[in-house]
Design a protein that fits this description.
Layout (H helix, E strand, L loop, with lengths): L19 H6 L11 H5 L16 H20 L20 H9 L21 H4 L23 H11 L12 H7 L10 H14 L9 H16 L5 H17 L3 H17 L29 H25 L23 H5 L11 H8 L10 H28 L5 E3 L4 E3 L3 H18 L13 H23 L6 H19 L13 H21 L7 H18 L3 H14 L3
Antiparallel strand pairs: 1-2
Helix pairs in contact: 6-8, 8-9, 8-10, 9-10, 10-11, 10-12, 11-12, 12-15, 14-15, 15-16, 15-17, 16-17, 17-18, 17-19, 18-19, 18-20, 19-20, 19-21, 20-21
C-alpha cells in the first residue's frame, strides 16, 4: 500500500532554519515559508515567524514601533526631553516566541495582577503591619521565563546601566566606588567584578527605570544574577561581590513585596559577612581558628584605602538591612549586637567615599560600635554625624524598639495578669522593673538621637541627597518611638500621647518631601509609614467614638498626607502600593 505524502518523515533542516514556534515546542519543522505545516495544522499561521538573523521578526518590529511611539509621547509631553543617544533595544534581549506572550496572558496568574510589574493580588485583607510578612507573590523568573542572551552586554551598554543606577545607589546603601566600577568594564574579565554583582546592579538600573523601555530587561538581569550567585559562592576571592549582590537582590525582592526571597538573600549576606570576618576587618582578625575549624572564605588585605573603605561601607550596608528588615519581617537578626567575643562588631563609623580616596580612615574602637551607642548614647560617639552614620544609629533604635516590644508582648500573652493593675478609673499597665528600665533607657536614647538633628523646617535648604538621608533616619527614630509606645497606649494615656506625637513628627517630615525626592527615597519608608498610619487611624477611631463630639479634620488631613506619600512611593516600590491598598480598606466607611 502506498504511503501518503503527509506520512513521510520530514527532511532534516539545517540548524536555525526552523520557525520560532517549532523551536520553542521542539517540534520538527519543514521550514516552508511563509507558513510551515506544523503551524498550518495548529491553525496558527500568523504565529509562524522565522529568525534568520537577517530580517526582523514581526514581534521585533512591533516592539520597535511601540518604542518609537513611547518616545514620541515623551517628546510631546516634555518639550525639554532629549532622546537617548544609545539605543536601548537589543534584538537578542527580546527574542521570545509567541508561546511566552500567550502563556503570560492565558495563565491564572495573569488575571491576578493589576499591573504588569505589580506582584500583588488586588484583594487583600489584614492590617498594614501584617502586610509586610504575609505576601502571596509570584515565583522568581527562571531562565525559561527571562529573556535569553548568551553574552554580557557591551561595555557601552554596561556604562549606560551604571549611569542609570549611580544616582540611586544610596537607596540600596551600596558602598562601591563608581569610578572604579565604570573603569572595570574595559579591563580583562579576570579584573572585573563577578557577574553576580554587575548583573544585580544592572537589575536595579532596569528596575528603577520603570516603565521606560529599559525595564524590559529587568527579568533578564535578575535571572543572570541568580544564576551567577552559585558560581560566586564557589570562588572565595569574590566573596565581597557576593555579599554586595545579595544585599541588592534582597532589597529588590523586599521592595517588590517578595518577602521570603528578600529575607533569604538578606540572611545570606549577613551570614557571609560574619563568616568571612568582615565585622572585624579593621583588626585584621576574622574568626577564632582551631584545628577543626573550616572557613573557606578569607579576606585578603585591602590594596588601598578605597578598597578598605568599600569593605567598611559594605559591612554597614549589611548591618542596616539586617537590623531594619529583620524587624519588619519579624525574624531574629544575624549580626549580634553585643560583646560576643570573636562575633562582636569592631568597626569604625562610615565615611564618605571622597575621604577614602584621600586615604582618610578613622581608627577602629575596641568596643562593639552599635551596642556602645545604645549603652552610652552620644556621649562617646558624638563626633560622627555623617548621613550614613545617622542611618545606622536610627536603625539600631528601630530594631531595638521592635525587639523590646515583641519580648514584652510575648510575655504579656503568656501571663497576662502579671502586667495589669486595676485602679478606680482604668486598667493601667505595670511593667516589670527590668522592662521598665529598658523602655526608659531606649526612650532616652531616641530623644538624644533626635534632639541635636537638623530642624525639620531647615531640610529645604539641605542638599537633596542629605535631605533624603535625613528623612529616612528621622523617620526610623520616630517610628521607633511609635512602636515602643503603641501597645502601651491602649492603657496608658502618657504612652498614647508619646506615640501620637512621634507619628505626627513623621507627618511633618512627609510634608517637607519634594516631589522629586520620591524617586530617591529608601524603600524602608514604606513599612515605617504603615506604623505611622496605624497610630493615626487609632486616634481617628478614638475621636469618632468620643463624647462630646470633637472635630476629626486634623487627623483626617494627617492620614491623607501619609496616604499621598505612600501612593507616590508605591509608584516606585510595589510593596508600598500593596500596603496602601490594605490601609485604604481599613479606612472604608470611616
Amino acid at each position: 500500500m502506498a504511503t501518503k505524502p503527509f506520512d513521510m518523515p520530514l527532511p532534516a533542516l539545517q540548524r536555525g532554519k526552523a520557525c520560532l514556534r517549532c523551536r520553542k515546542r521542539k517540534m520538527r519543522c519543514d521550514g516552508v515559508k511563509p507558513t510551515c505545516q506544523q503551524c498550518v495544522r495548529a491553525k496558527k499561521p500568523d504565529l509562524c515567524q522565522y529568525d534568520d538573523g537577517k530580517t526582523k521578526t514581526k514581534t521585533q518590529m512591533l516592539r520597535e514601533n511601540i518604542e518609537r511611539l513611547e518616545q514620541r509621547i515623551r517628546e510631546l509631553e516634555d518639550p525639554d526631553y532629549v532622546p537617548p543617544v544609545v539605543s536601548l533595544q537589543y534584538p537578542q534581549f527580546h527574542r521570545r516566541s509567541e508561546s511566552d506572550s500567550s502563556s503570560s496572558t492565558d495563565s491564572p496568574d495573569s488575571t491576578v495582577f493589576s499591573t504588569p510589574h505589580s506582584p500583588f493580588p488586588p484583594s487583600v485583607t489584614g492590617s498594614p503591619q501584617e502586610s509586610w510578612v504575609q505576601f502571596h507573590m509570584s515565583p522568581s523568573p527562571t531562565p525559561s521565563d527571562a529573556c535569553q542572551m548568551s553574552q554580557q552586554p557591551s561595555a557601552e551598554f554596561a556604562q549606560m546601566l551604571v549611569d542609570t543606577f549611580a544616582p540611586h545607589r544610596h537607596q540600596c546603601l551600596l558602598g562601591l566606588h563608581m569610578g572604579r566600577l565604570r573603569d572595570s568594564f574595559a579591563k580583562p574579565l579576570s579584573e572585573q567584578h563577578h557577574p553576580v554583582l554587575t548583573n544585580a546592579i544592572f537589575l536595579w538600573a532596569c528596575y528603577l527605570s520603570r516603565p521606560a523601555p529599559l525595564s524590559e530587561h529587568e527579568y533578564h538581569f535578575l535571572s543572570r544574577a541568580l544564576d551567577a550567585l552559585s558560581d560566586g559562592l564557589q570562588r572565595s576571592q569574590y566573596i565581597l561581590d557576593v555579599i554586595q549582590a545579595s544585599c541588592l537582590l534582597s532589597l529588590y525582592f523586599l521592595s517588590n513585596g517578595r518577602a521570603i526571597e528578600g529575607s533569604c538573600h538578606a540572611t545570606t549576606a549577613a551570614s557571609l559577612t560574619m563568616q568571612c570576618g568582615l565585622h572585624g576587618v579593621m583588626t585584621g582578625q576574622t574568626t577564632f581558628e582551631s584545628s577543626g575549624a573550616f572557613s573557606p572564605y578569607r579576606l585578603d588585605q585591602p590594596k588601598d584605602a578605597i578598597e578598605q573603605g568599600e569593605r567598611i561601607l559594605t559591612f554597614w550596608q549589611v548591618f542596616i538591612i539586617d537590623r531594619c528588615w529583620s524587624a519588619i519581617l519579624q525574624k531574629p537578626v544575624i549580626i549580634p549586637d553585643g560583646p560576643e567575643g570573636c562575633l562582636s562588631v569592631i568597626m569604625p563609623w562610615p565615611q564618605g567615599m571622597k575621604e577614602y580616596e584621600l586615604g582618610q580612615i578613622n581608627g577602629y574602637q575596641l568596643f562593639s560600635t552599635a551596642s556602645s551607642y545604645l549603652e552610652d548614647g552620644v556621649s562617646r560617639l558624638s563626633d560622627s554625624f555623617s548621613p550614613l552614620t545617622l542611618r545606622i544609629k536610627a536603625s539600631v533604635l528601630f530594631q531595638h524598639a521592635h525587639h523590646l516590644t515583641s519580648r514584652w508582648e510575648q510575655r504579656r500573652r503568656l501571663n497576662h495578669t502579671d502586667y495589669l493593675s486595676t485602679t478606680e478609673n482604668y486598667v493601667g499597665l505595670t511593667l516589670p522593673n527590668t522592662f521598665s528600665d529598658e523602655f526608659q533607657a531606649l526612650e532616652q536614647a531616641i530623644s538624644r538621637f533626635l534632639s541635636p538633628q537638623i530642624p525639620i523646617h531647615q531640610l529645604d535648604s539641605a542638599m537633596p541627597e542629605d535631605r533624603q538621608a535625613c528623612i529616612t533616619s528621622y523617620t526610623l527614630a520616630n517610628v521607633a518611638m511609635v512602636i515602643l509606645n503603641y501597645s502601651l497606649g491602649d492603657a496608658d494615656p502618657a504612652a498614647y500621647e508619646k506615640c501620637l506625637r512621634a507619628a505626627r513628627c513623621c507627618v511633618s517630615l512627609v510634608e517637607y518631601i519634594a516631589e522629586t525626592d520620591y524617586e530617591f527615597l529608601d524603600p524602608i519608608l514604606g513599612p515605617c509609614w504603615s506604623f505611622v498610619v496605624d497610630a493615626l487611624v487609632r486616634d481617628l477611631y478614638t475621636i469618632e467614638a468620643s463624647w462630646p463630639l470633637v472635630s476629626s479634620a486634623d487627623v483626617r488631613r494627617e492620614i491623607g498626607t501619609m496616604l499621598y506619600a505612600m501612593n507616590n512611593l508605591g509608584k516606585r516600590f510595589p510593596s508600598v502600593a500593596y500596603s496602601l491598598s490594605k490601609v485604604q480598606k481599613r479606612l472604608t466607611g470611616i
